[in-house]
Amino acid sequence: MSENTNINELKEQILEKEDKKTAFSDKFEKLWEEVKWAIKRQDSDEALKIITLWALSLWSSDVHYDNNENDVVIRFRIDWILTDIFTLEKKQYKLILERTKYSSALKLNITNIPQDWKYSILDWEKKLDIRVSTLPIKFWENIVCRVLDATKAIIDFEDLWFFWTTKRMLEQSLEKRNWLVLVTGPTGSGKTTSLYTMISKLNERSKKIITLEDPIEYELGWIVQAEVNEKSGFTYEQWLKALLRQDPDIIMVWEIRDYDTLNIAANASLTGHLVLSTLHTKSASETLDRIANMWLKPYVVAASVDTIIAQRLVRRICPHCKAEVEKTKNEKALIQAMLNETWMKNLDTDHIKLYKGSGCEHCNHTWYKGRIWIYEILRFTDEIREIIREWATSSEIIEKARKNDFISMKEDWVLKAIKWHTTIEEILRVI
Length: 431
Ligand SMILES: [Zn+2]
What we know:
Elements: H1 3-16, H2 26-40, H3 44-57, E1 60-67, E2 71-78, E3 81-89, H4 90-103, E4 115-123, E5 126-137, E6 140-146, H5 164-176, E7 180-184, H6 191-202, E8 209-213, E9 224-227, H7 236-244, E10 250-253, H8 259-270, E11 274-279, H9 284-293, H10 298-304, E12 305-317, E13 323-325, H11 329-340, E14 354-356, E15 368-379, H12 382-389, H13 394-402, H14 409-418, H15 424-430
Parallel strand pairs: 7-11, 7-12, 8-9, 8-10, 10-11
Antiparallel strand pairs: 1-2, 1-6, 2-3, 4-5, 5-6, 12-15, 13-14
Bound molecules: zinc ion.
């Protein structure tokens, strides 16, 4: 049996036994009471405001109104997990549905096609835009509202959960200022936060920073943000070219979608710009393959790319109810098998402690609160550039990088699990 099948089997066994927690809290009850009271007074504006503000205070990213045959469930996405908060009767929901559509300038009489726009709300004098989308379904119209708070999109660079070695690597890359830095990961891996945070670190009055986004998710104010508008007849590629004529120092291109965008981004970095962008790939090696499949010439790749960061978000153990737990036989075997694949193979697994939450009001009894990043970072050294020019495959490149400072996602997560930031189950889910 190969080591990999061993890991996969252990992974299945551990996840099968996982003790899944359903969120509950007195706060959900309180929110429900407040909403019911507002609806009773026919004050739908107040009801919508209460739901939105509570969603924000519970650190949710989205509010879902899901219609069943007989009722409607209100669910918040908290730390990427959809959490049932309370249920409304259809006639109670009608008020909220109509108010949401009205506030978002959507057509009330249109109920058979999807619509989307936004409404604004004041949270302590701060204006927040809430993106709304409706979807007609069998049992009526569902709404999903994105309640992300722009001020939370940018965090301190120190809070991006880099270990000091990886942090130093990345700081060096950003200081160079004429390369391409790629942040990769699936949807929900926190690429927006990483990119905005890196840009805010680079922000200086003497530098012109321009972003090309589709759409602009957060209005930042202190940089130039352009939104791709393909309806204007201009393609993504043409927008990017126009942006380069604006004499920028630093460019953030939201996503590299094809050869043309990649080629322009690479050439922009070759002509003295720091270019930050994202790719929808899972790992550093998959990113290398994707770039190769877009047929960017190897010598251009070697000369333009500096760093590839692959990332995932996992839930963090609730710091308020964290407690040490006994490792199971499977967990111990899994850690050993994972360590064997890294430079940490000589670590004694007996000394490794594992932690879990035990449930409290801070984490709505889910054992987790907040999220942390795990990373894989590939930095192009001279040696790597040389083999790329000679058409090396992604596995040859990774093998070469391993001899230097390459940090694989496995290594990063093993370190974060044994440093008690997250649990084995959480990490198994995302890698
Ligand atoms: Zn807790």
